[in-house]
Amino acid sequence: MSLIIEEPERFRQFDVVSDHSDHSYLNYWNKPAKSKKGISTTNNNNNANDAKTDGPDWFANPSSGVHKKIIKEWKVLERNLPEDIYVRVYERRIDLLRAAIVGPAGTPYHDGVFVFDVAFPPDYPARPPLVHYRSFGIRINPNLYANGKVCLSLLNTWFGSRNEKWNPGESTMLQILVSIQGLVLNKNPYFNEPGAGLFTGRKTKKSMAYTENTFIYSCMTMVYLLKKPPKNFETFISTHFRDRSTHILSACDAYMNSRAVVGCYGETGSDQVFKVSKNFKVLMKSWYPHMVVVFKGTGASLGSFEQLMVEKKTTSSKGNYSDVKKQQKKEKSSGFWKLIGIVKGFLGVKKVGTEKGIKLNSSSS
């Protein structure tokens, strides 16, 4: 008699769940809001307890237009989600949604997981959904702010032509997720920066520096996600990093030792040598041991990577951010970045401060 071993159930790309307690927009419609005259109001007539159960009346009523539209969005997502996008919706809060997007290969986001919380407005689809990036305080892209703001033309939070803006008759939640995956989490995020494409003299060097920083921030996000995964994605995040840990650590080692362009591990020959900044090597050596520890906690078999962790730990210094800060100071004093500052000011782009002890490269807005 042969022993039958059951495979664990595959994590579904789309599913309806019940626990929405850690959602970023849990009580959004009950928050006090100021009118143009400064009078304090609320976003709905229900009490705070309603937001923790069924949500505002306009979402809970199956016959309402917004309820029908959101259910239609659910069906579109369930049938058409592309690979590496996972969605959870809530049975008692249909106005809320959570999505996890795996970073595309060939980008500095490869193998990372990026989580977004979504809230549909009461007049949806007249207005686009609200989208919050769960950032852990890290600015990982010019369009993804440390405070969670997502800048995207389709959300009407970024400038763009009329056909790039939200269209109540045509735009969908699926389009938003695909846009984030393909347009935001791209190979050269530096060029998402306003005005970055206006100059050509130093753009390659600046883009490479931004890409290096982005991969470091992606690694940091991996560590924070494994330490504090969002509800309903705990199994997915643990399994994903267990399965991808050796590939991620191999990429880190290749980047540190100049065997691959950062973000392009596996796309170039191992006998080639690529230029990598000293700042990147210092920061990567600092975070590598943390990654090994959290990956091991998923049950991953890391073998030689654990010995490599010891080597990285003994060679990394406590003052591992000093070189980055010196470089940033040098860049900020250049005429090029003063001009970029003028362009940003004209476009109304505000600067975001320090995240997690590392200041963003001056190419970030």
Q: What can you see in these coordinates?
A:
By secondary structure, this protein is α+β, with helices and mostly antiparallel strands. It contains ten helices and seven strands. It has helices at 48-51, 57-60, 65-80, 173-184, 203-227, 234-256, 278-296, 304-315, 322-332, 335-347; strands spanning 14-17, 32-34, 40-42, 85-90, 96-102, 113-119, 130-133. Strands 1-4-5-6-7 form a five-stranded mixed beta sheet. A two-stranded antiparallel sheet has the order 2-3. A hairpin with a 5-residue loop joins β4 (85-90) and β5 (96-102). α5 (203-227) runs parallel beside α7, α6 runs antiparallel to α7 and α7 packs across α8 (304-315). The protein is globular, with a radius of gyration of 22 Å. The chain starts with 13 loop residues before the first strand and ends in an 18-residue tail after the last helix. The model is unreliable at 1-7, 35-42, 44-53, 317-328, 331-340 and 342-365 (pLDDT under 50).
Q: Measure the end-to-end span.
A: 64 Å
Radius of gyration: 22 Å
- Which structural class do you get from the secondary structure elements? alpha+beta
Average per-residue pLDDT, rounded, comes to: 80
Would you identify the regions where 5 or more consecutive residues have pLDDT less than 50? 1-7, 35-42, 44-53, 317-328, 331-340, 342-365
- Major sheet summary line: 5 strands, mixed
Question: Please, how many helices?
Answer: 10
Query: Topology as H/E string?
Result: EEEHHHEEEEHHHHHHH
Which of globular, elongated, flat, extended, rod-shaped describes the shape?
A: globular
The total count of strands amounts to 7
Q: What is the strand content?
A: 5-15%
Strand order of the largest sheet: 1-4-5-6-7
Helix content: 25-40%
